[in-house]
Write a structure and sequence with these properties.
The protein is an alpha+beta fold. It has 10 helices and 17 strands. The protein has 2 domains: about 100 residues, Jelly Rolls (Sandwich), CATH 2.60.120.260; about 300 residues, LmbE-like (Rossmann fold, 3-Layer(aba) Sandwich). GO terms for molecular function: hydrolase activity, acting on carbon-nitrogen (but not peptide) bonds, in linear amides. It comes from Salinicola corii.
């Protein structure tokens, strides 16, 4: 069921809408399309525009909007205890709407374990799905493709002045983030045998997977994979080829036999390593013995956009206008995974344990970030901005069948020649 209708204006301001009978007693979400009047908008004392949605004074959620984008979407979570025909109210502060909000109702897809997350780098699984993978820890596995060792300069080391050369600093960062691959999931109850590192060179995923250009890891594969409890194929080679990565993924997929796989969303996430991870999964699945029932797509980066506002509100729903391209048509179904207050705090702990997210900003850097973001955080103000965008009361995914995922990627490859 994916019903659509428009909210009705209410005297005195705001809008109202009712929960359809078909959604009563079901977990899911309502996608609310908003069209804003943004001409002449200026940042005022009240800060970013806010939309509030709720049932009376209960279950009210506030959503921060982007001030300069006219077409936006928000995703309001629905719980099974909301009675049919319950009236919801929507109000907006700091902006004006150009028309009535449009509603799309989405039941939560049924998902089963075992679960497997493919992460391009350490911290990608936690940013996108730290709450979900904690809730599913009993049957969760994580495969990380790269250590994320790339270091732009020796001035960007985690410990200032520790290494004098870029080569030494890069290897040190690789060691640090390799530790993250196995240590952080322990906080969620995942034992080390369910965390695996492949060892793809950081920043080289797309030429390796898409273009088939062999890459030489800065860290020998045997050393990068030293903490793995699973022996992956081709661990003693010096030059990594596409088939070496696909063979490792097929081994993990056929061994775990996940019913649900989580991977980066190639329609929204423009990061080259993230797109390569998604493509590698499709290529591996096209020749694997096992095919998952469902694929959950997540994005940690967006094109010309950044999730607005502070932490602890519901997850941002990216507008369709920022999609990179269409691979899957209408197949993906949006889904929210709820995180209660304690789970949100636990997710913050997962992020803080990740070396790349834990450096602290000084007062000047924090002021600059606040001006750019349009708000002053009351939580983790000195930490990476991902603490604001990732620590939310819901996690947002798009779900499609394993068949649709593979077919979409293969059609795209055929069309692009």
């Amino acid at each position: 069921m994916n019903g659509r209708n428009e909210a009705e204006p209410v005297a005195g301001g705001g809008y109202r809408f009712r929960l359809p009978d078909a959604m009563a007693g079901m977990a899911g979400m309502v996608e609310i399309e908003l069209t804003l009047k943004i001409e002449g908008w200026r940042m005022g004392r009240r800060g970013l525009p806010i939309v509030t949605v709720g049932r009376g004074d209960r279950e009210r959620e506030s959503f921060t909007l982007e001030p300069t984008r006219d077409s936006q979407r928000i995703a309001y979570p629905l719980t099974p205890d909301i009675p049919a025909e319950s009236e919801m109210r929507l109000g907006i502060d700091g902006a004006r709407l150009a028309g009535a909000p449009r509603l799309h109702w989405h039941p939560r897809p049924r998902l089963n374990g075992p679960f497997l997350i493919l992460a391009p780098h350490p911290d990608d699984a936690e940013l996108a799905a730290g709450g979900f993978y904690t809730d599913q820890a009993e049957t969760m596995h994580i495969v990380t493709l790269s250590c994320g060792e790339k270091l732009k300069s020796v001035d960007r080391q985690y410990l200032d002045g520790l290494d004098r050369t870029l080569e030494d600093g890069t290897r040190r960062k690789a060691e640090w983030r390799r530790w993250n691959v196995y240590a952080t999931p322990l906080l969620a109850g995942l034992p080390p045998e369910r965390s695996t590192l492949v060892g793809v060179p950081d920043g080289q995923g797309w030429p390796l997977i898409h273009d088939g250009i062999p890459q030489t890891p800065i860290w020998p594969l045997r050393e990068a994979r030293a903490f793995n409890r699973v022996e992956l194929p081709f661990s003693d080679i010096d030059v990594l080829e596409r088939e070496h990565v696909l063979a490792a993924l097929r081994q993990m997929i056929d061994g775990i036999r996940p019913d649900t796989i989580l991977v980066t969303d190639p329609e929204f996430d423009p990061h080259a390593d993230h797109r390569a991870t998604s493509l590698a999964l499709a290529m591996a699945l096209s020749k694997s013995a096992h095919r998952p029932t469902s694929v959950m797509l997540y994005a940690n980066h967006y094109r010309r956009a950044y999730p607005p506002g502070p932490a602890f509100q519901p997850a941002w729903m990216p507008p369709s206008s920022i999609a990179i391209e269409s691979l899957f048509g209408d197949a993906p179904v949006p889904m929210l995974w709820p995180l209660d207050t304690e789970r949100q705090k636990h997710k913050a702990l997962l992020l803080d344990s990740m070396s790349d997210l834990s450096p602290r900003a000084n007062r000047r850097q924090r002021r600059r970030r606040a001006r750019r973001a349009g708000f002053v955080p009351t939580f983790a103000a000195d930490r990476d901005p991902y603490f604001q965008t990732a620590v939310r009361s819901t996690e947002y995914f798009r779900v499609l069948s394993g068949e649709a995922f593979v077919d979409g990627w293969l059609r795209h490859l055929d069309a692009s020649g």
